[in-house]
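Journal club prep — side note

Before the paper discussion, L.F. wants everyone to see what a predicted structure for a comparable chain looks like in token form. Sequence:
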Amino acid sequence: MKENHNATVLHESCHKVIFRYTFLFALALLQACATEVAPQGGPEDRTPPKIVRIYPDSGALRFSGNLIRIEFDKFVNTQSLRSAIFFSPELDDYEIRGSGTSAEIIIYDTLKPNRTYTYTLTNDLKDTRGNALEKSYTFAFSTGDKIDSGFIAGKVFGQNNRPVKGALVLAYFLPKGDTLYADTLNPAKLKPDYIAQTDSAGVFQLNYLTEGDYRLIAIEDKVTNRRYDIGQENFAVPFHPVHTGMKNVLMRFATEPDTSRLVLQVADARTAYSVVLRFDRDVPPDSLSAAQFTIFDSTAKSLVNVYDLYSLVEGGREQVVLVTDSLVEKHLYGVQAFGVKDRFGTSGDSLLATFNGSSAPDTVQILWQPTFADSARNMLEAYVPSPRGRTLLLQFSGAINRASLASALTLEQGIGNQFIPTAYRLFFIDATRVEIQPQGGFELGMWYRVTVNHGKLLSARKQPLRDTLISRHFQVVSEDQFGSLEGNVVSDSAGKVILYAELLGANRFYPVLLTVQPDATGFAFVPFTLNELPEGRYFLSAFYVQQPKVSPYDKWDGGCPFPFRHAQRFALGFDSVRVRKRWTTTDARLRFSTIEYLGDKVP
């Protein structure tokens, strides 16, 4: 009995020893494999990782090693570190090793003597919970006795005039006197010499730069290649030359025009009397005419008449619909477009497409489709400012004959208890949309009546329409529904300036053209007044225009990365301004920042 008891004890002891070593081995294995796994439990961590220590120290001199060590306050994703790091001058041969909250970079390239090296970590770096760095950080060391100390700082704004977080600022050093390099520098092909990234306030700072001139380009870097991809992303360039030591370089994103040739992708006969054309981008319908399109029936060897056209939005894309003579279902057709341009003025070389005819009938009953109720008030309050002034949009359910509308349409103005016919102007957008305006413009607070007699109206194919009369009364918004804004623009340079007051949340801009002429103090305080502003909060911006003939409705030119062209100088307000109806808001001020360049002001 005693021997059995001893055997049992020995057996249990062996199991405990085996279990203990197995547990320790498994624990060690888990620790070895879990270097990039964040600690579990507790509230979800949304804070960005922070860099707490580096080796060598930033600014270190006479560095002769090949190891960089970075320590963070939390577990980081090593793979993201590989895509986040950028060396200047560029290093090709190095290795990144990550372990929990630290990372080591082993440099295999031979470092050049007496040279400043920088490495930048962008916000592509993320912790194991996916939180990115707040902004980019740049560190430097020198293999010699001194280190480059040049810097450039500034701010990047979006097209909405708000600071942009995470924009990548590419900096290219421009060798002194090398104008050929400056003229041929293509940011789509050349890697930058330095990079920085904007923080949540849109601020960037490039540090440890070689002293001299630079070309800066801010990009969204959608494909994360640290290069500007022409036609694929927006950009921002400064409005003045840039040199080290500048502290307030301002840039604002501009839309990159698609310079590729326009393409006619598809033609499709939807009915026996219409052909839908889809281009690879939107084409303004008010820039087109039926004379720009030819349709050939290759089966019957004859031309098909094109009467008119209109636009149709499908799948978020504006398409062009041609109104034609009768098409035959089994016939093959070809359509060719001439002189068609996108909104940037880019056309195509050979805009050709083929399609099969259709026998589907055109069942649309053409009628005016009023977008407002009878006796509507406060009409045209939300119009988008334009050189024409206020206009009323008329929308028809199908394409009409433009010439027949004048005899079918009546516009009357309410005077006393009567409506008196008044002369008007028509502005066709396409064959289904037209804007109407009294010869003297719509008067605030006045009543009007629009009547369409469809019995006098023809379709685009000159077919009579059903004899229907549609009439609507409406009152234009009165003056007491608006407010005014007064203030000053402050600047140090002579020229023409366009000031915009942007109604926040409405994407509407109210412009005024100003002339700036500084006095003996070197500054100008130019007063401005904006009337007929709807109630709301406004954001002020302004820019200089250089062209000889200037309109308040000219658009800001954001420059070009290649071939390089500076943007037009701009200024942005720091806060919004409140406008109330029946009230004048005063003392608004917008100041152009003074640019210092080698001791001289830049206009």
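L.F.'s comment for the group: DSSP finds four helices and 43 strands in the chain. Keep this in mind when we get to the figures.
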